[in-house]
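Task 17 of the worksheet. Students: predict the tertiary structure of the chain below and write it out as structure tokens. Keep your answer in the requested format; marks are given for formatting as well as content.
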Amino acid sequence: MPVATPKQFAAMLDAAQEGGYAYPAINCSSLTTVNAALKAFADSKSDGIIQFSTGAGQFVSGLNHKNAALGTIVLAEATHRLAEQYDVIVALNTDHCQPTAAESFLKPLIEATAARRAKGENNLFQNHMLDASNLPLEENMAISQEYLKICAENEIILEVEAGVVGGEEDGAAGTEDTPEEKLYTTPEDMLAVYEALHSIGRFTFAATFGNVHGHYKPGSVKLRPKILQQGQASVMEKYGKDAEFDLVFHGGSGSLLEEIRETLGYGVIKMNVDTDTQYAFTRPIADHMLVNYEGVLKVDGEVGNKKAYDPRAYLKKGEEAMAARVAEACNDLLSTGKTLFGSI
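Model answer:
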């Protein structure tokens, strides 16, 4: 199945909202991690989202260039080809893009989609995130309006954020010292976001409710999912049921399952998964190196073991372990078995 068309992606979001489930949005930075996500979605019979950060794009473009836009385009084009092998639907998204990087990152990606559309081809991306949450809300919404207009012209959905997700992940806003009040989006903020953007085009919204990037011990992250419920209520009370947000859950690593499930009832239709899948990928590779120490290294002048140091030997283990963690995310978010493949 090729990557979702804009209409198919919109149908995916609608189905999740109506069905009370969410899609895992898996950050990938290589073909191996893309394949892990695709395997998990297919094995779980779940549709899903694969997304790339500016850091992933820089990595893929090569150490000599670190061209975030080019590397991201390479990843996206490869995913389009690889996705054709599977009977599930996947959408492509870009993760946190700061306003300072938008001109050199988002605009070239949107232009790449526009070029494909001009040839009658599917969008390169269905979704982009502009993270202007480090700006005052009025400035955040002004630049979000600018990019939402460009996205809407190309049937791309824009993801925005108000409030700050704590911690740090691949350049995302926020630090471990972020003031507590900044970690919680207010109903007034949510109303302002809706009023600023709803007339321009479709968007998703990463409201913050205490979520923190990175991994923390259970109990360290103080989530308040009811904030999402309160914000949704304030918007729908004024503008009706159709004003309900499609919400995005960032910084979910270490969250309790009951908290994750609770957010699904408040309109969360997408949850980003990165830290947990990074660890799942790396853990068996570390084991491989320790168990096969004398094979992967030419110790004391020996020749080692080519089968042990062949990168495929350990990358396959990483891919399989990451796929298992993505499948766990599908189960947590209740998307397992709900693929729309063949019906839209």
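Marker's comment: Residues 119 and 336 are 35 Å apart (CA to CA). Confidence is low (pLDDT under 50) at residues 171-175.
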